[in-house]
Amino acid sequence: MQSLTVLGATGSIGVSTLDVVARHPDRYRIFALSGKTQLERLAAQCAQFSAQYAVVDDAASATRLQGLIAEHGARTEVLHGADQLAAIAEAPEVDAVMAAIVGAAGLRPTLAAARAGKRVLLANKEALVMSGALFMAAVEAGGATLLPIDSEHNAVFQALPPTYRRDPAAAGVRRILLTASGGPFRDRHVDTLAGISPDEACAHPNWVMGRKISVDSATMMNKGLEVIEAHWLFGVPPEQIDVVVHRQSVIHSMVEYADGSVLAQLGNPDMRTPIAHALAFPDRINAGVSPLDLCAVGRLDFEKPDPRRFPCLPLAYAALRAGRGVPAVMNAANEVAVDAFLSGRLAYLAIARVVESVMARLASAGDGSIEELESVDAEARALACEWVASAEAA
Ligand code: NAD
Ligand code: MG
After folding, report:
1. CA separation, residue 53 to residues 37, 45, 50, 88 (Å)
2. CA quadruple 322, 326, 328, 329: dihedral positive or negative?
3. How buried is 364 (Cβ within 10 angstroms: 0-12 exposed, 13-18 middle, 19+ buried)?
4. Which sites bind Mn(2+) (predicted)?
5. When you count CB atoms within 10 A of the terminal residue's CB, does the N or C end of the chain come out lower?
Protein backbone atom coordinates (compact mmCIF):
# COMPACT_ATOMS: atom_id res chain seq x y z
CA MET A 1 0.00 0.00 0.00
CA GLN A 2 1.47 3.34 -1.10
CA SER A 3 0.51 6.53 0.70
CA LEU A 4 0.19 9.46 -1.66
CA THR A 5 0.16 13.26 -1.58
CA VAL A 6 -1.27 14.96 -4.65
CA LEU A 7 -0.10 18.58 -5.06
CA GLY A 8 -2.50 20.33 -7.43
CA ALA A 9 -5.26 17.73 -6.99
CA THR A 10 -7.97 19.91 -8.53
CA GLY A 11 -6.15 20.43 -11.85
CA SER A 12 -6.17 18.35 -14.99
CA ILE A 13 -3.27 16.09 -13.89
CA GLY A 14 -4.57 15.93 -10.31
CA VAL A 15 -7.99 14.74 -11.44
CA SER A 16 -6.47 12.14 -13.79
CA THR A 17 -4.24 10.92 -10.95
CA LEU A 18 -7.20 10.43 -8.63
CA ASP A 19 -9.05 8.64 -11.42
CA VAL A 20 -6.23 6.06 -11.61
CA VAL A 21 -5.93 5.87 -7.81
CA ALA A 22 -9.68 5.18 -7.49
CA ARG A 23 -9.26 2.10 -9.71
CA HIS A 24 -6.73 0.60 -7.28
CA PRO A 25 -7.88 1.04 -3.67
CA ASP A 26 -5.79 -2.01 -2.77
CA ARG A 27 -2.55 -0.28 -3.84
CA TYR A 28 -2.93 3.42 -3.02
CA ARG A 29 -4.34 5.57 -0.27
CA ILE A 30 -4.41 9.36 -0.17
CA PHE A 31 -2.56 11.10 2.64
CA ALA A 32 -3.02 14.70 1.50
CA LEU A 33 -4.42 16.79 -1.34
CA SER A 34 -3.77 20.42 -2.30
CA GLY A 35 -5.54 22.97 -4.49
CA LYS A 36 -5.71 26.70 -4.83
CA THR A 37 -9.17 27.29 -6.26
CA GLN A 38 -12.11 24.97 -7.04
CA LEU A 39 -12.68 24.33 -3.34
CA GLU A 40 -15.90 22.39 -3.93
CA ARG A 41 -14.06 19.92 -6.09
CA LEU A 42 -11.29 19.67 -3.50
CA ALA A 43 -13.83 19.01 -0.71
CA ALA A 44 -15.45 16.22 -2.75
CA GLN A 45 -12.02 14.70 -3.41
CA CYS A 46 -11.12 14.83 0.29
CA ALA A 47 -14.36 13.03 1.14
CA GLN A 48 -14.07 10.43 -1.63
CA PHE A 49 -10.49 9.48 -0.71
CA SER A 50 -10.67 10.09 3.05
CA ALA A 51 -7.64 12.37 2.84
CA GLN A 52 -6.01 13.11 6.19
CA TYR A 53 -4.97 16.64 5.18
CA ALA A 54 -5.86 19.25 2.60
CA VAL A 55 -3.75 22.35 1.94
CA VAL A 56 -4.95 25.58 0.33
CA ASP A 57 -3.36 28.97 -0.22
CA ASP A 58 -4.80 31.23 2.48
CA ALA A 59 -6.78 31.28 5.73
CA ALA A 60 -10.06 32.36 4.10
CA SER A 61 -9.98 29.44 1.63
CA ALA A 62 -9.09 27.10 4.49
CA THR A 63 -12.15 28.14 6.51
CA ARG A 64 -14.37 27.75 3.47
CA LEU A 65 -12.93 24.36 2.58
CA GLN A 66 -13.25 23.06 6.15
CA GLY A 67 -16.96 23.96 6.02
CA LEU A 68 -17.46 22.21 2.67
CA ILE A 69 -15.67 19.12 3.94
CA ALA A 70 -17.92 19.05 7.01
CA GLU A 71 -20.97 19.13 4.71
CA HIS A 72 -19.61 15.94 3.13
CA GLY A 73 -19.33 14.40 6.60
CA ALA A 74 -15.57 13.93 6.10
CA ARG A 75 -12.82 14.50 8.69
CA THR A 76 -9.97 15.92 6.60
CA GLU A 77 -7.92 18.51 8.47
CA VAL A 78 -7.42 21.70 6.44
CA LEU A 79 -4.13 23.63 6.55
CA HIS A 80 -2.90 26.58 4.51
CA GLY A 81 0.20 28.31 3.22
CA ALA A 82 3.52 27.45 1.59
CA ASP A 83 5.07 25.78 4.66
CA GLN A 84 2.13 23.39 5.01
CA LEU A 85 2.34 22.58 1.30
CA ALA A 86 5.95 21.51 1.82
CA ALA A 87 4.95 19.66 5.00
CA ILE A 88 2.47 17.36 3.22
CA ALA A 89 5.14 16.63 0.58
CA GLU A 90 7.85 15.62 3.05
CA ALA A 91 5.78 14.03 5.85
CA PRO A 92 7.18 10.67 7.01
CA GLU A 93 3.77 9.01 6.34
CA VAL A 94 4.10 9.75 2.60
CA ASP A 95 5.64 7.35 0.08
CA ALA A 96 4.93 9.17 -3.17
CA VAL A 97 4.18 12.75 -4.18
CA MET A 98 2.41 13.74 -7.39
CA ALA A 99 3.85 17.19 -8.21
CA ALA A 100 1.04 18.66 -10.32
CA ILE A 101 0.94 22.32 -9.32
CA VAL A 102 1.35 24.49 -12.40
CA GLY A 103 4.27 26.90 -12.65
CA ALA A 104 7.02 28.10 -10.34
CA ALA A 105 4.60 27.91 -7.36
CA GLY A 106 5.24 24.16 -7.33
CA LEU A 107 8.99 24.43 -6.81
CA ARG A 108 9.26 24.51 -2.99
CA PRO A 109 6.98 21.54 -2.19
CA THR A 110 8.40 19.47 -5.05
CA LEU A 111 11.90 20.17 -3.81
CA ALA A 112 10.80 19.22 -0.29
CA ALA A 113 9.58 15.86 -1.59
CA ALA A 114 12.89 15.29 -3.40
CA ARG A 115 14.96 16.17 -0.32
CA ALA A 116 12.84 13.85 1.81
CA GLY A 117 13.62 10.95 -0.53
CA LYS A 118 10.09 10.37 -1.79
CA ARG A 119 9.00 8.76 -5.00
CA VAL A 120 8.45 12.01 -6.92
CA LEU A 121 6.00 11.84 -9.81
CA LEU A 122 6.96 14.98 -11.68
CA ALA A 123 4.34 16.74 -13.79
CA ASN A 124 5.39 20.25 -12.73
CA LYS A 125 8.04 20.74 -15.44
CA GLU A 126 8.46 24.43 -14.55
CA ALA A 127 10.11 23.42 -11.24
CA LEU A 128 12.77 21.47 -13.09
CA VAL A 129 13.26 24.15 -15.76
CA MET A 130 13.70 26.77 -13.08
CA SER A 131 16.20 24.96 -10.94
CA GLY A 132 17.47 21.95 -12.88
CA ALA A 133 20.90 21.64 -11.26
CA LEU A 134 19.67 22.22 -7.70
CA PHE A 135 16.65 20.00 -8.17
CA MET A 136 18.65 17.07 -9.50
CA ALA A 137 21.16 17.54 -6.65
CA ALA A 138 18.27 17.40 -4.16
CA VAL A 139 16.98 14.18 -5.74
CA GLU A 140 20.46 12.67 -5.44
CA ALA A 141 21.06 13.87 -1.87
CA GLY A 142 17.61 12.80 -0.67
CA GLY A 143 17.78 9.43 -2.43
CA ALA A 144 14.45 10.21 -4.12
CA THR A 145 13.09 8.25 -7.07
CA LEU A 146 12.20 10.69 -9.83
CA LEU A 147 9.60 9.47 -12.33
CA PRO A 148 8.51 11.70 -15.21
CA ILE A 149 4.79 12.26 -15.78
CA ASP A 150 5.12 14.51 -18.81
CA SER A 151 4.09 12.10 -21.57
CA GLU A 152 7.22 12.71 -23.67
CA HIS A 153 9.63 12.15 -20.80
CA ASN A 154 7.68 9.21 -19.53
CA ALA A 155 7.98 7.75 -23.05
CA VAL A 156 11.75 8.38 -23.10
CA PHE A 157 12.07 6.84 -19.64
CA GLN A 158 10.28 3.74 -20.91
CA ALA A 159 12.50 3.57 -24.02
CA LEU A 160 15.74 3.79 -22.02
CA PRO A 161 17.34 0.71 -20.45
CA PRO A 162 16.75 0.18 -16.68
CA THR A 163 20.52 0.56 -16.16
CA TYR A 164 20.57 4.02 -17.76
CA ARG A 165 20.90 6.06 -14.58
CA ARG A 166 23.76 3.92 -13.26
CA ASP A 167 25.75 3.92 -16.51
CA PRO A 168 24.42 6.38 -19.12
CA ALA A 169 27.50 6.11 -21.36
CA ALA A 170 27.03 2.36 -21.85
CA ALA A 171 23.48 2.88 -23.13
CA GLY A 172 24.74 4.38 -26.41
CA VAL A 173 22.05 7.03 -26.68
CA ARG A 174 22.58 9.14 -29.79
CA ARG A 175 19.49 11.36 -29.68
CA ILE A 176 16.30 11.99 -27.82
CA LEU A 177 13.40 12.78 -30.14
CA LEU A 178 10.58 14.65 -28.45
CA THR A 179 7.34 14.59 -30.38
CA ALA A 180 5.08 17.66 -30.51
CA SER A 181 1.52 17.76 -31.75
CA GLY A 182 1.99 21.24 -33.21
CA GLY A 183 -0.96 22.52 -31.16
CA PRO A 184 -4.07 24.22 -32.49
CA PHE A 185 -2.27 26.50 -34.98
CA ARG A 186 -0.05 24.02 -36.78
CA ASP A 187 -2.01 24.40 -40.03
CA ARG A 188 -2.88 28.09 -39.78
CA HIS A 189 -1.06 30.55 -41.98
CA VAL A 190 1.56 32.32 -39.83
CA ASP A 191 0.35 35.71 -41.04
CA THR A 192 -3.05 35.06 -39.40
CA LEU A 193 -1.77 34.39 -35.88
CA ALA A 194 -2.00 38.00 -34.70
CA GLY A 195 -5.59 38.08 -33.47
CA ILE A 196 -5.68 34.71 -31.69
CA SER A 197 -8.02 34.63 -28.65
CA PRO A 198 -7.37 32.72 -25.39
CA ASP A 199 -10.13 30.21 -26.17
CA GLU A 200 -8.68 29.51 -29.61
CA ALA A 201 -5.23 28.97 -28.07
CA CYS A 202 -6.65 26.61 -25.44
CA ALA A 203 -8.53 24.43 -27.95
CA HIS A 204 -5.86 21.74 -28.25
CA PRO A 205 -6.57 19.18 -30.97
CA ASN A 206 -5.34 16.09 -29.07
CA TRP A 207 -5.10 16.76 -25.32
CA VAL A 208 -7.38 18.30 -22.68
CA MET A 209 -5.15 20.24 -20.26
CA GLY A 210 -4.96 23.26 -17.95
CA ARG A 211 -5.05 26.67 -19.64
CA LYS A 212 -1.42 27.63 -19.06
CA ILE A 213 0.03 24.48 -20.61
CA SER A 214 -2.52 24.73 -23.44
CA VAL A 215 -1.20 28.16 -24.42
CA ASP A 216 2.36 26.85 -24.04
CA SER A 217 1.45 24.08 -26.49
CA ALA A 218 0.15 26.59 -29.01
CA THR A 219 3.36 28.70 -28.84
CA MET A 220 5.51 25.55 -28.42
CA MET A 221 7.04 27.02 -25.29
CA ASN A 222 5.75 23.77 -23.81
CA LYS A 223 8.11 21.80 -26.06
CA GLY A 224 10.88 24.26 -25.20
CA LEU A 225 10.31 23.64 -21.48
CA GLU A 226 10.34 19.92 -22.28
CA VAL A 227 13.70 20.15 -24.06
CA ILE A 228 15.15 21.65 -20.87
CA GLU A 229 13.30 19.07 -18.78
CA ALA A 230 14.78 16.25 -20.91
CA HIS A 231 18.25 17.71 -20.50
CA TRP A 232 18.02 17.51 -16.71
CA LEU A 233 16.12 14.23 -16.44
CA PHE A 234 18.34 12.27 -18.80
CA GLY A 235 21.65 14.20 -18.69
CA VAL A 236 21.67 14.77 -22.46
CA PRO A 237 23.14 17.96 -24.06
CA PRO A 238 20.89 20.26 -26.15
CA GLU A 239 22.40 19.19 -29.48
CA GLN A 240 21.26 15.62 -28.80
CA ILE A 241 17.64 16.61 -28.15
CA ASP A 242 15.45 17.12 -31.22
CA VAL A 243 11.81 18.04 -31.66
CA VAL A 244 9.65 16.51 -34.36
CA VAL A 245 6.07 17.55 -35.08
CA HIS A 246 3.84 14.48 -35.01
CA ARG A 247 0.24 15.54 -35.30
CA GLN A 248 -1.44 12.32 -34.18
CA SER A 249 0.17 12.34 -30.68
CA VAL A 250 0.37 8.56 -30.76
CA ILE A 251 4.15 8.25 -30.50
CA HIS A 252 4.89 10.07 -27.25
CA SER A 253 8.66 10.32 -27.88
CA MET A 254 11.64 8.25 -29.01
CA VAL A 255 15.24 7.37 -28.20
CA GLU A 256 17.75 6.84 -31.00
CA TYR A 257 20.71 4.59 -30.22
CA ALA A 258 24.27 4.33 -31.59
CA ASP A 259 23.40 1.18 -33.55
CA GLY A 260 20.64 2.98 -35.47
CA SER A 261 17.75 1.56 -33.42
CA VAL A 262 14.96 3.98 -32.56
CA LEU A 263 12.70 2.96 -29.66
CA ALA A 264 9.33 4.62 -29.23
CA GLN A 265 6.48 4.45 -26.75
CA LEU A 266 2.99 4.60 -28.25
CA GLY A 267 -0.48 4.97 -26.82
CA ASN A 268 -3.65 7.01 -26.94
CA PRO A 269 -3.13 10.60 -25.85
CA ASP A 270 -4.39 10.18 -22.29
CA MET A 271 -2.31 11.33 -19.30
CA ARG A 272 -3.60 8.42 -17.21
CA THR A 273 -1.09 6.18 -19.06
CA PRO A 274 2.09 7.97 -17.86
CA ILE A 275 0.45 8.57 -14.46
CA ALA A 276 -0.34 4.86 -14.00
CA HIS A 277 3.13 3.94 -15.28
CA ALA A 278 4.84 6.15 -12.71
CA LEU A 279 2.48 5.20 -9.87
CA ALA A 280 3.04 1.48 -10.31
CA PHE A 281 6.60 1.40 -11.69
CA PRO A 282 8.07 -1.15 -12.23
CA ASP A 283 4.68 -2.93 -12.19
CA ARG A 284 1.98 -2.16 -14.75
CA ILE A 285 -1.61 -1.46 -13.78
CA ASN A 286 -4.87 -0.66 -15.55
CA ALA A 287 -5.12 3.08 -16.22
CA GLY A 288 -8.67 3.05 -17.61
CA VAL A 289 -7.26 4.07 -21.03
CA SER A 290 -8.83 2.54 -24.11
CA PRO A 291 -6.52 0.34 -26.22
CA LEU A 292 -4.68 1.98 -29.09
CA ASP A 293 -6.37 1.16 -32.40
CA LEU A 294 -3.59 1.65 -34.96
CA CYS A 295 -5.85 0.87 -37.91
CA ALA A 296 -8.21 3.63 -36.79
CA VAL A 297 -5.23 6.01 -36.46
CA GLY A 298 -4.26 4.97 -40.00
CA ARG A 299 -1.09 6.98 -40.43
CA LEU A 300 1.69 8.65 -38.47
CA ASP A 301 3.05 11.94 -39.84
CA PHE A 302 6.28 13.72 -38.98
CA GLU A 303 7.57 17.19 -39.85
CA LYS A 304 10.14 19.73 -38.71
CA PRO A 305 8.87 22.52 -36.43
CA ASP A 306 8.78 25.91 -38.21
CA PRO A 307 10.67 28.48 -36.06
CA ARG A 308 8.59 31.32 -37.55
CA ARG A 309 5.39 29.71 -36.32
CA PHE A 310 6.93 28.63 -33.01
CA PRO A 311 9.55 31.26 -31.97
CA CYS A 312 9.44 30.10 -28.34
CA LEU A 313 11.17 26.83 -29.22
CA PRO A 314 14.48 28.45 -30.34
CA LEU A 315 14.26 30.73 -27.28
CA ALA A 316 14.18 27.69 -25.01
CA TYR A 317 17.20 26.12 -26.73
CA ALA A 318 18.99 29.46 -26.27
CA ALA A 319 18.06 29.51 -22.57
CA LEU A 320 19.34 25.96 -22.10
CA ARG A 321 22.62 26.78 -23.84
CA ALA A 322 23.01 29.98 -21.79
CA GLY A 323 22.43 27.91 -18.64
CA ARG A 324 22.62 29.12 -15.01
CA GLY A 325 19.55 31.24 -14.16
CA VAL A 326 18.46 31.94 -17.76
CA PRO A 327 15.92 29.08 -17.99
CA ALA A 328 14.35 30.43 -14.77
CA VAL A 329 14.17 33.88 -16.36
CA MET A 330 12.55 32.44 -19.46
CA ASN A 331 10.05 30.46 -17.42
CA ALA A 332 9.04 33.42 -15.25
CA ALA A 333 8.65 35.78 -18.20
CA ASN A 334 6.58 33.17 -19.99
CA GLU A 335 4.30 32.64 -16.98
CA VAL A 336 3.61 36.37 -16.78
CA ALA A 337 3.10 36.71 -20.54
CA VAL A 338 0.74 33.72 -20.74
CA ASP A 339 -1.25 34.99 -17.77
CA ALA A 340 -1.53 38.42 -19.43
CA PHE A 341 -2.60 36.80 -22.69
CA LEU A 342 -5.22 34.63 -20.94
CA SER A 343 -6.69 37.69 -19.24
CA GLY A 344 -6.83 39.69 -22.47
CA ARG A 345 -4.00 42.10 -21.64
CA LEU A 346 -1.42 40.87 -24.16
CA ALA A 347 -1.56 39.86 -27.81
CA TYR A 348 -0.75 36.25 -28.66
CA LEU A 349 2.29 37.11 -30.78
CA ALA A 350 3.70 39.30 -28.00
CA ILE A 351 4.25 36.29 -25.71
CA ALA A 352 7.50 35.34 -27.46
CA ARG A 353 8.57 38.99 -27.59
CA VAL A 354 8.15 39.45 -23.83
CA VAL A 355 10.17 36.30 -23.16
CA GLU A 356 12.93 37.26 -25.58
CA SER A 357 13.28 40.78 -24.24
CA VAL A 358 13.33 39.71 -20.56
CA MET A 359 15.91 37.00 -21.37
CA ALA A 360 18.10 39.66 -23.04
CA ARG A 361 17.84 41.92 -19.98
CA LEU A 362 18.74 39.16 -17.49
CA ALA A 363 21.25 37.21 -19.56
CA SER A 364 23.69 36.80 -16.67
CA ALA A 365 21.20 35.54 -14.05
CA GLY A 366 22.69 33.10 -11.57
CA ASP A 367 21.42 29.85 -10.08
CA GLY A 368 23.60 29.40 -7.01
CA SER A 369 20.80 28.71 -4.54
CA ILE A 370 17.02 28.43 -4.37
CA GLU A 371 16.93 31.91 -2.83
CA GLU A 372 18.91 33.30 -5.76
CA LEU A 373 16.61 31.54 -8.24
CA GLU A 374 13.55 32.91 -6.48
CA SER A 375 14.95 36.43 -6.72
CA VAL A 376 15.80 35.86 -10.41
CA ASP A 377 12.23 34.64 -10.87
CA ALA A 378 10.86 37.75 -9.15
CA GLU A 379 13.07 40.10 -11.18
CA ALA A 380 12.05 38.46 -14.46
CA ARG A 381 8.38 38.69 -13.46
CA ALA A 382 8.74 42.40 -12.66
CA LEU A 383 10.36 43.10 -16.05
CA ALA A 384 7.73 41.07 -17.88
CA CYS A 385 4.95 42.94 -16.03
CA GLU A 386 6.53 46.24 -17.08
CA TRP A 387 6.64 45.05 -20.69
CA VAL A 388 2.96 44.06 -20.54
CA ALA A 389 1.97 47.36 -18.92
CA SER A 390 3.79 49.41 -21.56
CA ALA A 391 2.20 47.34 -24.34
CA GLU A 392 -1.22 47.99 -22.77
CA ALA A 393 -0.51 51.72 -22.55
CA ALA A 394 0.65 51.90 -26.20
P1 NAD B 1 -4.17 22.95 -14.05
O2 NAD B 1 -4.18 24.41 -14.24
O3 NAD B 1 -5.30 22.14 -14.57
O4 NAD B 1 -4.01 22.61 -12.49
C5 NAD B 1 -3.05 23.25 -11.69
C6 NAD B 1 -3.18 22.85 -10.23
O7 NAD B 1 -2.25 23.64 -9.47
C8 NAD B 1 -4.56 23.12 -9.62
O9 NAD B 1 -4.82 22.16 -8.64
C10 NAD B 1 -4.37 24.49 -8.97
O11 NAD B 1 -5.26 24.72 -7.89
C12 NAD B 1 -2.95 24.40 -8.47
N13 NAD B 1 -2.30 25.71 -8.38
C14 NAD B 1 -2.25 26.67 -9.35
N15 NAD B 1 -1.55 27.74 -8.93
C16 NAD B 1 -1.15 27.46 -7.66
C17 NAD B 1 -0.40 28.17 -6.69
N18 NAD B 1 0.07 29.42 -6.92
N19 NAD B 1 -0.18 27.58 -5.49
C20 NAD B 1 -0.65 26.34 -5.24
N21 NAD B 1 -1.37 25.62 -6.11
C22 NAD B 1 -1.61 26.17 -7.31
O23 NAD B 1 -2.78 22.43 -14.68
P24 NAD B 1 -2.44 21.00 -15.28
O25 NAD B 1 -2.76 20.98 -16.72
O26 NAD B 1 -2.97 19.91 -14.40
O27 NAD B 1 -0.85 21.02 -15.18
C28 NAD B 1 -0.16 20.81 -13.95
C29 NAD B 1 1.32 20.63 -14.25
O30 NAD B 1 1.49 19.45 -15.01
C31 NAD B 1 1.92 21.77 -15.08
O32 NAD B 1 3.22 22.02 -14.65
C33 NAD B 1 1.93 21.21 -16.50
O34 NAD B 1 2.95 21.75 -17.29
C35 NAD B 1 2.17 19.74 -16.22
N36 NAD B 1 1.67 18.85 -17.27
C37 NAD B 1 0.33 18.81 -17.54
C38 NAD B 1 -0.14 17.98 -18.55
C39 NAD B 1 -1.62 17.88 -18.86
O40 NAD B 1 -2.01 17.06 -19.69
N41 NAD B 1 -2.48 18.65 -18.23
C42 NAD B 1 0.76 17.20 -19.29
C43 NAD B 1 2.11 17.27 -18.98
C44 NAD B 1 2.56 18.09 -17.96
MG1 MG C 1 4.33 16.98 -22.55
Report:
1. 16, 11, 9, 8
2. negative
3. exposed
4. 150, 152, 226
5. C
Which residue in 308, 73, 84, 64 sits closest to 186, CA to CA?
Answer: 308
Instruction: For 392, list phi and psi in degrees, rounded to 5.
Output: -65, -40
Sheet holding 77-80, edge to edge: 77-80, 53-56, 28-34, 2-7, 96-99, 119-122, 145-148
Return d(Cα 243, Cα 376) in angstroms, integer: 28
Are 2-148 and 323-393 equal in CATH topology?
Answer: no
- pLDDT above 90 coverage of the chain, percent: 98
User: What are the residue boundaries of the structural domains of the chain, listed by start?
Assistant: 2-148, 160-268, 323-393
pLDDT tens-digit map of 333-374: 999 999 999 999 999 999 999 999 999 999 999 999 999 999
Q: How far is the C-alpha of 351 from the C-alpha of 46, rounded, in Å?
A: 37
- CATH code of 323-393, in short, is 1.10.1740.10
Report whether residue 224 contacts ligand 1, using a CB cutoff of 6 Å: no
> Does ligand 1 have an atom closer than 6 angstroms to the CB of 36?
yes
- Of the pLDDT bands very low, low, confident and very high (cuts 50, 70, 90), residue 394 is confident
Q: CA angle at residue 101 from 214 to 83, to 5 degrees?
A: 155
Q: What is the DSSP letter of 123?
A: -
CB 285 within 8 Å of CB 276: yes
Contact partners, residue 394, CB within 8 Å, separation at least 6: none
Q: What are phi and psi of 244, to 5 degrees?
A: -125, 130
Give the mean pLDDT of 63-72.
Answer: 98
Of the ligands numbered here, which is closest to the C-alpha atom of 84?
1
Tell me the pLDDT tens digit for each residue of 291-330. 999 999 999 999 999 999 999 999 999 999 999 999 999 9
Distance 182 CA to ligand 2 centre (A): 12
The amino acid at residue 64 is R
pLDDT digits over 38-63, tens only? Answer: 999 999 999 999 999 999 999 999 99
| Rounded (5°) CA angle 87-91-94 | 130
Whether pTM > 0.95 for this model: the answer is: yes
Q: What is the arithmetic mean of pLDDT over 204-233?
A: 95
Instruction: Write b or e for each residue in 256-284: b if 16 or more Cβ atoms lie within 10 A of its Cβ, otherwise e.
Output: bbeeeeeebbebbbbbbbbbbbbbbbeee
| Average pLDDT for 241-251 | 98
206 lines ligand 1 (CB under 6 A): no
